Fold each of these.
Amino acid sequence: MVNQRIEFSDIQQREPVLLERVRRGDEEAFGQLFDRYYAAVASYTYKLVKDEQASEDIAQDVFVRLWKTRANLDPGMPPQGLLITMAKRLALNELRKVACDRKARLHFWQEIQLARNIVDDQLQFTETMQLAQRAIAALPKRQQEVFQLSRYEGLSHEEIADTLNISKHTVNNLMVQALKTLRVALKGAWFLVFLLSIFER
């Protein structure tokens, strides 16, 4: 276990030909290499990844890869140097993977939040427009006609007066009354209040 850490410096090199035996496919020699160095490899990788389970997984992977590539081993290379090189490479790969996963998770949650904000904005806009429609529908008939001709048809006050066969002054008064009522009904819906202020000009 990594909890009882063993450093590479604690291991005595009693068998310089150990890697040569492993290279030839000697399972007993590989078992000796594993027993002798596994804890040290796990301890070394823990210093890099700072994670107990990850360090043990990397240490196991080191020996799995060592056995699979045993035919390419350099028997003159000290086991310690070889294992440190392999462990460091795998640990750095793990750190990069963790960093990428963390970045991906962060991006995922940012996208989720953005989607939620869009949905919230759409819902809020829909609710506000429904509120506006109800407020307009509640206006007295003549005020409603004047407002709708101005808002939906884009007619000027003079054109509205001609359409409804009333004076321009009457149109102005009806529009002022309609806007005053709508401001009260739409209090808090600042965007619609802003639009109303434009129509008033």
Note: The radius of gyration is 39 Å.
Amino acid sequence: MSESTAVRALSDIVPGSDNRRSRYVHRSAHKDGAARLELVTSPPGEPDSRVPANPPVPLPPPETAIQRLALYAFEAIEGTRSISQLAGTVTPEVVRELQARRSLRVERRTLIHDQRRIVALPGPAHTSRPHPEIVEAAVVLHARGRTSVVALRLERNAERWRATELTVL
């Protein structure tokens, strides 16, 4: 396959572009006629330092993972699930908040002698992405006789999503 290449300064192509950081357009034409354009920070004849045009946007966590996290947080506050099971998916601040809410809930249930176990079923997760590395979601949990809502904010750091804010209403 023969390939022809051409490298031109971006300021030659786009009038008014910034000359302080020279950028070049690297154009490759393949034998089959397909063309590929890439931004290059080095002029012709120097080692290539190609800049990706668009950095990859991380995929949001699947809806089922958001629903499970909401359900597990609800169960942790109700006392049917250990908070330590959420440790890998929530920040330490969220763990402290869940522990405080759980202790209040347990104290309330003790005072009124309520021994019922509440089983909730999650509804669909309603999500929005204010930033490529942030997902905000709300999940409605349906239980017999009552409905609860879990609002959460997930942020991506390193290679995983973690809940930085989580509220059970």
Note: The helical segments are 10-13, 63-78, 92-111.
Amino acid sequence: MAHEKDFVTMKIYIIGGAGSGKTFISKKLSQKLDIPTYSLDDIYWKGDNDFREKEDKKILLEKFKKIISNKSWIIEGAYFKWIDDGLKLADYIVLIKLHRIWRTYWILKRYLGSKIIGGRRKETFYGFYKLVKWNWKYDKEYMPLLLEKVERSKKGLIIIKSKKEMEEYLQKTVL
């Protein structure tokens, strides 16, 4: 285990289903390590406040390559079809494997919060419904594909299975 002062450069890839806490942990690590964090939602979706229109694939890949060319980064996202280069360059891969019921709870909480107090993105009920539906398929259909990519990257994998483990991880250690 290393302490935060030991890091000069660091590349951390955080993966997990929707509502698993990827953004939460990436922001905490970013503050602790003084490393910029990038959400793949920000390059996958066109515009900066709407989840309706996907970015052109060529533009998306250009943005992704620009991010991974940086000296240090924390990338978080649930996407897996085009992330191989980022996984290969990562020093650490953090996999958040919360149960889908908890993830659905956090998705609902985020959706309701965006409706009550506003959020950085406009979320529609239809978008919320599609995300919950996708999330319920994530463990069975998408997680095996993601794990295959992680294994090919030959990187150390840190697995977090609960919010408690996440808090303990953030308090006690930094990779």
Note: The longest helix spans residues 125-153.
Amino acid sequence: MQLFDLHALLHLWRLTLVAAGLALSGYASAEVTEQTECNISVNMPVVDYGKNYRSELPLTSDNSRSFGKRKLTLSIVCPSEQPMRLQLHGEKAQNDFLRYEKGYVKVEILQGQLDGKNIQFAMLGADNIPTGSPANNLAIRPNDRFAVTLNNQVASGTTLNAQIEVEAILPDNSVRVSDFTSFTTSMSVELLN
């Protein structure tokens, strides 16, 4: 099992997404053995929204405040071809998005390439077969299982590069000048066997 952790912290008007580390462990199976561990990384371990005033944060349709969208590049490098089936882990908010204390984080996986070829993404069913139509962009939520696809099939390869877009959103009443509360969340992306 390969995990990449991404932590989000909010200190007053500052949101920081921090890649806390890469946890690698061997997992013996017919597909992935201890000798073929894959490396999972992100290009930008810290995303800093900087200092913002409440009035600068746009209101969303649900009367919340958005800290804006940020893009990270997810890279998975394996020594041999692996089926690129993934799962997002994290605590769910009431609206099924990634929980962010009183708010939530929207996560979307965008345009990617597998071994230099453009790919699409699709949700996975219980049988590890893609469900629905593959798409260039896929909104994912905690516990969602999804796959890289080529020709409507789960694709195998050695090098995956994909963009992940995150948008942190807090209720309007949580973003006040007098607030000195820290908000945290974490998520991980797992390469499934």
Note: The radius of gyration is 17 Å.
